[in-house]
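check this:
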Amino acid sequence: MVCTLNYTDVIQKALKTLDKKNFAFIIHGGSFPAANGENTGFGSINSNGGREVIDFAKGIFNAIQLGPAGKTKSCDSSPYTGTIFSGNPLFIDLKQLTTPEWNSILSVETYNSIVDGNPNKNINKTAYSYIYKKQNEALEEAWNNFKSNGSPELKKEFEGYKLENDYWLDKDSLYEALSIEHGNDYWPLWNSETDKNLFNPKSNEEKIEYAKRINEISEKYSDAIDQYKFVQFVLNKQNEKTREYAKKAGIKMIADRQVAFSDRDTWAYQSLFMEGWMLGCPPDYFSKDGQAWGFPVMNPDRMYNDDGSLDEGGILLKNLYKKMFRENPGGVRIDHIVGLIDPWVYKAGKKPRIEQGAGRLYSSPEHPELKKYAIATLEDLDETLEADKEKRVKSLSKDQIHRYGRLIEKIVIAAAEEEGLDKDAIVCEDLGTLTNPVAAVMKEYGLQGMRLTQFVVPEKPEHPYRCRNIDARCWAMVGTHDNEPIAMWADKMINTHEGYLHVKNLVEDLFAECDNKDDIITHLTGDAEFLKQTKLVEIFASKAENIQIFFTDFFNIKDVYNRPGTSGDENWSLRLPDNFKELTPINLAKILKLAIIARGKDFAEKNKEVIDELSNIE
């Protein structure tokens, strides 16, 4: 009896042949397409359009890497400044609220008017300002109808949800009430010092005064507070439903934990942050003054108690990671892992430059203010290098490495294990400058970082992003949400000296046994399509056990999702088109076939059957 394998069977067989454990599709929440007639102006994995993507991914991918899921501000669509606990209400699928499942708490008329009024309904871009306002209006209508028409079962479930999540939900909802009280949602502009510091009392008298104020606001805005909690409840129920749908399709979700804290979080937990210090990046090739992110820095003195147990700051972070691992069994991508292990901090109001007082929080024993937090000693430093150089800490003992890695061990890994996962559920974004302490911690704890092949430095034969240097325990990709798609990169490389340097390395790594190397070099140097394809072959031919691919790269979309350093509705707005199934994606079968061939003649001969099967479906 002859068994004919279908497309997904062959793809999975080829991925297994290449020793790939995970193949993840990267798409941020707002970038999901809409089903026909359901485009409100913002994407959601909870929508029918989201389910269409899950259905498409089934059998090809085993994971979807999402972006940060926190609540964003009306004036800033960046998901990387969202809240750490509250979810983004824009990810609520309004369509579901018009159905009997939710007692039709949103009218069909309201829903249709939002779809009809979407200014971007015919293009694959979000309409952020539009939907931010309309979504809030729709959810207010849903809340009012829920109070009168919601089923007893849902209302009982809602009460249980509030109790279970009060450790974060009470503060986040109180902030919403105060935003109404003061007419804006940016607490530094509030005209009451009391309201700015409700969870940061400096004395017992203030503690008593602030408790009274919390009760006063809670009573005055009880309905608005409950509405905020209701929105989070709805989102949570939809998320759970989507996770179950994805699980049946063999798809696991990978969350994204940004390094930032939102305004709401900064207000709620300001007593746990360092006063007068911010997190950023030191000066580099891209920014002569460094990057002044303006994010607060967790105070080391509030992270751990003298006996090594977690203090309030540590408990906060562990609760955050436990929630993320519990809700995303596929794992968590940690943005800017350097910020957890060896952060660069600068003084508020200053530039993140050494001469203005900036330095590495745990690696500055010479710094008059930061030396009390130093793990590295003066003897550990190469003092010929400046404080921002990645190799400045030249030596570390095992004990020092564990001290640098304390947050990773006691909080991140511990949270994963308590939720039934292991350290492989931790995906570390370690792109860019990687200091010696960070590299040592990642090696000590066996953490998996990223290899971004688009950013390989071709002049450096041992560069870690080059195919032949990529190790097995990592995640390889051609680009992330911060890069131009590989097709746009290839267009720029054609017939350039830089492009030739990349091509030379690709030929050495992927075509080593070919007799016509000169012809291949000529072809790659002048053919953007062939160069793009070969860069995709590279990640699969590498030893990396885990592969990620951004939706623009998979679907050959020549547009950019995020241009770092820019803001406004145009940024973070790119979506997978509603008709994405009509697009021509990459020829994955051909790419996998070429990746097997690139492993060498012996490997190809051993796996000739897989190559033939891929040839039949490419």
About this structure: The longest strand covers residues 273-281. DSSP finds 24 helices and twelve strands in the chain.
